[in-house]
Design goal:
This protein is an alpha+beta fold. The protein has helices at about 30-40, 75-90, 140-145, 175-180, 185-195, 235-250; strands at about 1-10, 20-25, 45-50, 60-65, 70, 100-105, 105-115, 120-125, 130-135, 160-165, 170-175, 200-205, 220-225, 230, 255-260, 270-280, 280-300.
Length: about 300
């Protein structure tokens, strides 16, 4: 059967910025192995697969794959999937709800659509889990993972630590924007640290944002390096976790941060993240703009051989 797909650049307002995601809109009948193969073929940081929800009150079941594994939750894939589903619904003349509810391995993920003059321009999600603080990594080992010196790291607010609001990352604060610019993953050092408490990637950020474009107008600059030794241009799940960690350290249940990522790899991104009280519980959120990119279809039978 022909299966439709679409792609979007997420956490940006222009083409070729942000983080690309591929969304397979007709995933019924695909096996896990087929989904993994498709994700590897797209070779984006994540590809999502849209399936009917188990509960008809929800929007869809969404499965998320990197090129080498299925993950329980991620930020930019959810934002991009909601954005593209909404755009598809508008194109068909359907009424679009202000909020979608996705069923994922990590739990239910509410996603609110962002609109400008009646046009869907992006989305904002609520992370499926409260902040969890896990293993602490010695500063010298964390620095080695990034090819940096110990003095390039800052530990007055927190030590390098694995944190999660649905997907775990080792979060590291760097002392300067220059250190962030020089950071690069070192495989041998990674293999000495990861996997650790289910984390396989490092999210590094700095409060030293400087002034002027593209640094101006943000609270943090960040980069994220995966266990595949690749860099992610915009990482919603890590950004939400880091924002929740900083809010907890400051004792502030409600925070709002503008975080820029991707500048050092030529894909500038802006993520709007923080925490707020919702139904008496502190939740982490992250959102941003999206741009439609490509759409098409491919032929692939269901795993059971049906056309």
């Amino acid at each position: 059967m022909r299966r439709r797909y679409a792609t979007a650049d997420v956490f940006t307002d222009r083409m070729f910025g942000g983080n690309p995601v591929a969304v397979v809109l007709d995933a019924i009948g695909l096996s896990t192995d087929q989904m993994q193969a498709i994700a590897l073929e797209f070779n984006y940081s994540e590809t999502t697969f849209v399936l009917p929800p188990r509960d008809p009150a929800h929007t869809a079941q969404v499965r998320i794959f990197t090129p080498d594994r299925e993950i329980p939750f991620a930020g930019h894939p959810n934002i991009g999937t909601a954005f593209l589903l909404a755009r598809q619904m508008v194109a068909r003349g359907e009424t679009v709800s202000d909020q979608f509810m996705f069923e994922e391995l990590a739990g239910l993920v509410p996603v609110k659509l962002l609109q400008s003059q009646g046009i869907v321009t992006g989305a904002e999600l609520i992370a499926p889990e409260p902040l969890s603080r896990r293993a602490v990594v010695p500063v010298d080992r964390a620095a080695a993972c990034l090819g940096l010196a110990v003095d390039d790291l800052r530990i007055d607010a927190h030590a390098p630590q694995v944190v999660s609001v649905g997907l775990p990352f080792l979060v590291v604060e760097l002392a300067t924007r220059d250190a962030l610019r020089r950071a690069k993953p070192v495989r041998a050092a990674y293999e000495n640290v990861f996997p650790l408490d289910d984390a396989k990637s490092i999210y590094a950020y700095t409060r030293d944002v400087g002034t002027g474009a593209p640094a101006g107008g943000c609270d943090l600059q960040a980069r994220m390096f995966t266990g595949r030794m690749t860099e992610d241009p915009a990482t919603g799940s890590a950004t939400a976790a880091a924002s929740a960690l900083l809010a907890a350290l400051r004792g502030q249940p409600e925070t709002s941060l503008r975080i820029r990522q991707g500048a050092d790899m030529g894909r500038p991104s802006l993520l709007l993240a923080g925490t707020r009280i919702q139904d008496g519980v502190t939740v982490a959120f992250v959102g941003g703009g999206c741009v439609e990119m490509f759409d098409g279809s491919f032929a692939l039978a269901s795993a059971d051989g049906n056309a």
